[in-house]
Write a structure and sequence with these properties.
The protein is mostly helical. The protein is about 65% helix and about 0% strand. The protein has 28 helices and no strands.
Amino acid sequence: MKKKTALLIIGIVFLAYANTLFNDFIGDDRSIFLENNFYANPGNLPRLFQKSFITTFEDIDPAANKQPSFSGCVSYRPAVSLSFFFDHFLWGTNAAGYHLSNLMLHLLAVFLVYFSVQRIIENHALALFASLLFAIHPINAEAVNNIGYRSDLLLVIFYLAAFLSFVKSRTGGRDAGKQPLVASYVFFAAALLSKESAVTLPLILLAYDTLFPPGGGKNRFISLLKERKFEYMTFFLILLAYLYIYLFVFPNSNHPRLFDFQVDWFARLKTVVGIFYRYLLVFFLPFKVTVLPPLYMPPLALKGFEVFPVIFFLILCVIVISKFWKKERGVSFFTLWFLATYIPAANLILLPNPFAFRFLYLPSIGFFAVAAVLLSKGFTLLSRRTKIGNLKALLQFTVLSACLFVTVPYNFFYRNEFIACSEMIRNYPESSRPYWNLGRIYFKKGEYTKASENFKTYLSKDKNNPFVTVMDWDVHYFLGLCQWDRPEKAMEEFEKAVRFNPGFAAPYTGMARIHIREKNYKKGLENSLKSISLNPASPEGYALAVYCRMKLGEIKEAKALLGAALKLSPGDPHLQYLQKETEKNERP
């Protein structure tokens, strides 16, 4: 690679994503890095190899009443978590540092895309065009903007490193290829430990050997398989070992539902076709990229204008593969790349998060490589017919500029939680999750009326994703807090929260406070003791119980309860105040 090419790629990537450095933690990033001590403690590194590495609902459940300490990974991705430990060591809780890490990883991925396309197509200009499309097309911006989605960045880096090492092992003779092959095995394992989609790599390697067999010959592929059987067997054994780890040693939190085959297959087909249509739409119309709500399931009432483009595109892929099979094998190869690497995101097995643009980060490499070739051919033909010498370069610049003009402002929507949720609601008003997030934001700001409005809207929306755990109990608890000036309404919401989730301690403290305000100390004591039984580490529950016992004249019991509470939270100011009050009552 020439120095000018490298500088051009660096410059354009930073131009597209420099404004991400001003973005805050949002969504899952907040719960993973700000409201959780997992990555702040190097002592948690051994947990990368323990069952507790996998995050379950109990780990993030507010009703679990414990200090959050979870990896954020619902499947086994230790390579991603290792990078987060490194980030926390460098940046602490400074969001800009994490975003810089994502930007640098994306830049590395862009360089690897350039080398991969250059190696297959053997054309510098096309490799540069393809890598720049990959770099700045807004479909890949989601993976760059969200720190918690780093798995896609690392997957592509290790995946391409494994692929390039494999390709290198095919040149220079069998003995010369041993070292690159070992590197390919290692990178393949690292890719698998970054994200499950790496399972498609053996298909890509087989496609490469099929299209680019050294020496040629009619039966060359068969003989090559026999000659390289040890190598393919090694890839297979690595994959088999990973699948055993993924399915049995560290099973996915959603494992039972992922492999539920009691499904409506027609509905599943609608899901597959409808989501693929939406991805294709964004590839061809970049301005259609939006900030997607968490665990978003798009409406799947399929219409002809959605089905026919999908069928047409797949037929077109078959035509492209067959037409270029002998003349320009690189086009056929990258078409196969797109189709093969898309399979894990196709919802053939329903995904917990069915639709997310970051899932196209790996498949888009194949799409943009083919697009670069076909667009360049079209631009060249147009340039010849119009006899405008620089028209091809001008049209390529126009395509890249259009992508850039969408991506740069799109990054702004990730500036903070409020902007992101507002944008989600603007584009997906029927999605429930953004209203919940926005309600909590308004609650923290003390704007309880707006918080209540958003919580109530959340309750009115259909939670149409089977993997979404309905958090109605949490919403009713916050609705109770928002209506503190209306005790009857607040009590009603707290009671609803308890009915939805009897193990949730917080509503009992809310009810205890209401009873104390009404001077019903017996009921207040009853609810505060219930809160303590559900959450023995809650200073608030102890403080309310001690206060009620004091008001009921049960000084001895209050003192015993206070002693137990101070052992758990010796620095709590409310408990220290109550300690002084009990001491006053003991004086003659």
